[in-house]
Amino acid sequence: KNNNKLFKYDTYINSFLFSSIMGITLTMLMYPISLGLSNYSGIFDNPNNLGVFVSVATLIFLFLLIRNILVKDVFLIVIYSILSVFSLYLVSISASRTALIGLGTSMFILLLIIFIKQVSLGKITIKWMLLSIFSPIIILLIFVIFLNSPLYVAFEENFVAKSISRGSDVTAGRTIIWESIIKNTPFFGSKDTSVKELLGFSAHNSYLSILDTYGWIPAILYTLFWIFSFIKSIRQFMNTKQNRLQNAFAVTSIALFMSMSMMEVLTHTLAVYVGLSGVAILQINDKELK
Q1: 45, 179, 198, 210: most buried by Cβ count inside 10 Å?
Q2: What gap in Å lies between CA 251 and CA 239, rounded to an integer?
Q3: Which stretches does DSSP call E strand in 69-190?
Q4: What is the rounded distance in angstroms from the CA atom of residue 245 to the CA atom of residue 249?
């Protein structure tokens, strides 16, 4: 039974690992990276799609890195460290705000619930206290160094400038598109009022894309599915001592998909399969506990 469960979990992870490495390899071979590159899209039709894909790859690489740190496999630690750093670099040159927000949000949520769990278990030791004190100081020092480095110039051009741009930038008008969908979509949806059909614009939001296409009931059910899955993943992580790494993956994968879905339509991408894999892992572990 345990071997069967482990096989299912490893099947999910290994399938995404294979997809991630293949996608990155093809991108590198067909569209070589050069210095000073920005808005890089590789084999994808736009930089944002690359950013979303690589953010999923980053999540997979990081969890495999953690798993191999726990088993102390030095060779694989080096391999996954390199892959993690390189995938983060691809996120930066893609200039994808969706990917940056998704990764930042999911990792923050994971660290927060780990901290809360340690507090609830009364396991805040001197080591944890020192880590809590010195971590912000180290992060601040890194941030100061970053602000005075050439990397900040690239970050400012790729992310900050895009975020404050207006005028002809279609993505700057996302709120207008979202307001139009919410105000004009009938209860059961209609092709005649679809923003995509009328204006040719994407909803740039997975939840509103469902609303725009199918109406309010499917959109509400779709949103509730992910909310309840996320809540369940947190509860399982907080309340069980078994399968901690698997439960952490479930929390992070669902959080990554949900946060990126607020900025882009991801219902047909690799990201949704990672999110659904997190849900599947929850169900597998839930049955094990019963």
Answers
A1: 210
A2: 13
A3: none
A4: 6
Residue for token digits 């309840």? 228
16 contacts 60 by C-beta, under 8 angstroms: yes
Contacts for 215 with CB less than 8 Å, ≥ 6 apart: 185, 186, 187, 188, 189, 190
Please tell me the distance from the alpha carbon of residue 86 to that of residue 108, in angstroms, as a whole number.
21
Report DSSP state, residue 272: H
Give residue 131's pLDDT. Answer: 60
| CA-wise closest residue to 51 among 97, 8, 116 | 97
Is residue 49 pLDDT above 90, yes or no? no
Q: Which carries the bigger pLDDT value, residue 142 or residue 28? A: 28
Specify the pTM.
0.76
Q: What is the mean pLDDT of residues 42-49?
A: 83
Here the contacts of 15-21 (C-beta below 8 Å, separation 24 or greater) are 16/56, 16/57, 16/60, 16/270, 16/273, 16/274, 16/277, 17/60, 17/64, 19/270, 20/53, 20/56, 20/57, 20/60, 20/61, 20/87, 21/57, 21/83
Rounded mean pLDDT of 145-171?
A: 54
79-to-68, 75, 274 alpha-carbon distances in Å: 10, 6, 22
Q: How far apart are CA 260 and CA 229, in angstroms?
A: 16
Q: How many whole angstroms separate alpha carbon 188 and alpha carbon 103?
A: 34
Length of the chain: 290
Q: Are 212 and 185 in contact (CB under 8 A)?
A: yes
What does the alpha-carbon distance between residue 201 and residue 146 come to, in Å, rounded to a whole number? 36
pLDDT of 43 higher than 80: yes
For residue 98, the model assigns a pLDDT of 83
